[in-house]
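Researcher: Please translate sequence to structure tokens.
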Amino acid sequence: MRHSLRGWLWFAIAVLVGGAGLVIAQQAETPPAAEPAPPAVEAAPPAAEAAPPNDSDIPSIEANRKNSVEANEDSLGRGKTLYTDRCLMCHGKSGNGKGTLALQLGYKVPDFSRAKALGNRTDGELYYLITRGHEAMPGEQDFISDKEKWDLVNYLRTFTPKG
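Model: Translation complete:
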């Protein structure tokens, strides 16, 4: 009887171990259940952007704002770098309004080399237009500092012939 009990015990252990092995093998072959998809969320409508100002929309306090950065060699150098990085693609290398992007998109960009384009503008107006944007040109209010905007104003003045 001792032999038969020991035999049954070994048989039971073998069955348990074999059964556990089968369960583990099945779990390894069964791909995990896909997680349910999150509920669909409707995209919020895009926030309305403020329209760029027209010439008549420039407040007089802005038009009369005084340039706080001297138009020296340092300022002009910084302005040129900013112009090259942020403006040249539309306004062109010489400020003639014939940048590659403007030409490709069909934008009419002012020719800064003509006295009429900038001559009647105050520094404050240019600063305001750089900040807020104008027609198709996006504003720089969130991208460059006030000092950099004045550097750009100073550099833009180099395109217009003195006269």
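Researcher: Any highlights?
Model: The chain has eight helices and two strands.
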